[in-house]
Design goal:
Mean pLDDT: 96
Order of helices and strands: HEEEHHEHHHHEEHEHEHHH
Bound molecules: zinc ion
Number of domains: 1
Strand order of the largest sheet: 1-2-4-3-5-8-6-7
CATH architecture: 3-Layer(aba) Sandwich
Distance between the termini: 18 Å
CATH superfamily: Zn peptidases
Amino acid sequence: MSLPPAAASFAPSYRAARRLFMDASAAAGLTLQTFAHPLPGAEGEALAMDVARAGGFDATALLVISSACHGVEGHCGSGVQHALLSDAAFMAEARAAGVALLFVHALNPHGFSHGRRVTHEGVDLNRNFLDFTGSAALPANPGYDALALQLVPPTWPPTPENEAALAAYAQAHGERGLQQAITGGQYRHPQGLFYGGHAPTWSRLAIERVLRQHAGSVQRLGWIDLHTGLGPCGHGERIFAARPDNATLARARAWWGADGGTVTALHDGSSSAASQISGMLWQAAYSQCPQAEFTGIALEYGTVPLAQALLALRHDHWCAAQPRVDAAQREAARQAMRTAFYVDTEDWKQQIVQQGRAAARLAVSGLSGQAGLAGG
Ligand SMILES: [Zn+2]
């Protein structure tokens, strides 16, 4: 049986992507579980985090494949999920290996629908998994504090002075230092970029519930969280997304290195991402499934140069902070976000799906304990 073209798995809107996901889940014989979001989408549609599970609750190993942690990046992630659900050979391979699959569609459905990276609370979900009870101080980010007004300035476009201040920071701390300050996460500027929030978001509470329900008793838990916006266009970087202890890192590198691929990591500076990020999503695997041996990556697909993605993000946040922005300006910002986090070409989609399939098969192989299965 031949597979449909990759482009058939991708959709131009959250509403259309959700429809594809529901149809593919049904076609694969899976039932859907829906966690309704309290707000409407950009087209007035209902929003939800949808979960489709393949494999019984007696499975000892489970692989989570999730999309749209960063809303707008869901165009890509949802496409990968649809391609996997529609791939009968992959689904059969997981079944034969005794590995349950959990497809979590739209971790952040509001951001997906509205073309934003953040949740409806204005929060970067991948910086939100911290203890907000007050028992521990939230991470400080003096670099962001220094740049907050340059990044989201009072007027748009940014002034030459705004840009000169950013350039001066890069001069003093290096481009990587600038990236760290901007993207590492901050907890003091609610209208700013990469804001981690002051409380658990709706999305965090929902995914924590999903994990408790579906992975609360598995022995081995794997997670591939699908992202876009960093690295060379079309390249899927496998970024280690778990506690950086030696055993877990070695396991991730054994699984996702089995095809000759590389697993990069934040803590040793080998990834395209900042070297220190606070409050990441994978924390939920440990808090909700402490019994499981956890192994995870973010599969981060390149789109456009980082500077372009950052400019789109700044414009998006500027618009969100302005009560009176005309429709044309808002639409321009929305288009720039779409372009920055989704490449709407056949070629790109083919590369995305092929690398998504490879990573998912390697994870199934690793979780089944049958190293080498995916190499065949
Ligand atoms: Zn992302």
